Amino acid sequence: MKKLSVSLILMLGLFSCEQPWLPKPPGYNRIDLPAHSYQQLDGEYPYAFDFSESSKVEADSFNLDEKTWINLDYAALGAKVHLTYKRIDGKSVDFKTLSNDAFKLTAKHQVKAYGIQEGVLLTPNGYTAVVAELEGEVPTQFQFFVTDSTTHFLRGALYFKTAMKNDSLAPVIEYIKIDMTHLMNTVRFKE
Description:
Number of strands: 11
Distance between the termini: 100 Å
Structural class: alpha+beta
Number of helices: 3
Order of helices and strands: HEEEEEEHEEEEHE
C-alpha cells in the first residue's frame, strides 16, 4: 500500500504541474546591421561618390553595353542598388526625357504601392536630387536620381533578392536608405 501511494504521489507530481502546450507565435529573424562606414568609388566612371563598406561594386549584368552602369551589392543583406548613368547631350539624350523616364519607372509601382512619397533635395555639391520612397509590397522601396540637369544624370533603385514582406525588411530598408542618402550627398560629376 505504501508503494502504491508513493507511486500515485509521484505520478500526480509529474502530471499536475504541466501547463497546456501552446505554439509559439511567429517571429522574425534577428538582423544584425553593421555600423555605417563609407569608402570612395574608384574607377573610370564619369561620377564619384562615397558608398557603404558593407556593399561591393559590381558591373551591371543587365546591359553590358553600358560600362557606366554598376550595382552596389549588399550580399549579406540580400539587396542591390542598381545605378544607371546617362550623359546629357541635349540632342539624343536630354534632361526632360531622362527625368520623365525616371518618374515613369516609379509610377509603374503604383499598382502595388499604397504610398509614394517624393522629395527634391539640393546636394552639398550643388546638384538636384529627387527621391521616391515607396510603401507597400513593391519590388523597389527607394529610388532616386541626381543630376546637374545639363550634362550628367545618375539614377538609383534599391532591390531585394527575396520575396519577403517589406515590413520584415524594414530595418534593412532604413539602413540602406541612410547609405543612399550619403551617396547622393557625396556625388561628384567629373568633366
